[in-house]
Amino acid sequence: MIINAAPALQNLLAQLSSARLSSLLPVEVLVIKNLSEQKFLLQIKGQKLEVSTPKPLIVGEKYLASISHDTQNNTLFLKHFHKFPLKAEQALYSLEEVLRHFKTPSKEAVTQLHTQLLSSLSNASGKEEFSFLTQMLLGLNQGFVSLPFRYTAGFGLLQYKKRKRQGKQSQDEVQFYAHLKHLGPLDGLVGINDDEVYVHINVLFEESLTLLQGYADEFSFKSSLVIRLKEEISPLFALSEQILDINI
Length: 248
Hints:
The protein has helices spanning 7-15, 18-21, 95-103, 106-122, 127-141, 206-215; strands spanning 2-3, 27-36, 39-44, 47-52, 62-70, 75-83, 93-94, 145-151, 154-163, 173-180, 184-193, 196-203, 225-229. The chain has 248 residues and is α+β, with helices and mostly antiparallel strands. It has two domains: 2-83, CATH 2.40.50; 89-229, no CATH class. Strands 7-8-9-10-11-12-13 form a seven-stranded mixed β-sheet, sandwiched between helices. Strands 1-4-3-2-5-6 form a six-stranded antiparallel barrel. The relative contact order is 0.13.
């Protein structure tokens, strides 16, 4: 995905120093207009730029993308457009509430979540909110727990589902997906093997991989922590599907 040199490029580069570009975390991209089959007008850091990409982008949607800079021809390259899995107003929980969820016994936590969703659904103020809550409840009934949350730096989504491992002595694993503003999407597994916790994390962006690897020594389970790049990462359960056509 290439951003051709343009006057707006100079303004963007002024905001993103060369030092920052060398270790840039994902940036927010808004798709403004579809100019042709593989050409789009994007807004990045307040600047409007034309981009050629074979990946189909949706006008009006926000994505995360990583940026690299070719200093010889003054061109920016974008990689890995990842669509935001939710909107800011759909972040129903605080970070503290999410942490309390994981401190509560599993069955009790899920029951509480189910009760809260039913209550929120009965008080939904519009069709979009009703549809979103219905989708969350549908996922929960299929074993997918979704926790859209807000925190100081923005908002994010955490999803998980328990899954059976093969073998009589095997314990269940937890499959997870997360989306954070400054890391982008992650997915992976958490489980126990011979009383030892293991964690496998996949990330989409190289910058996120570098950042997480830098903190690996701070985790108590660092010996069984695996962090890798992955070409595509998607939510475990899509919350944006329009499953109902109801006027409220």
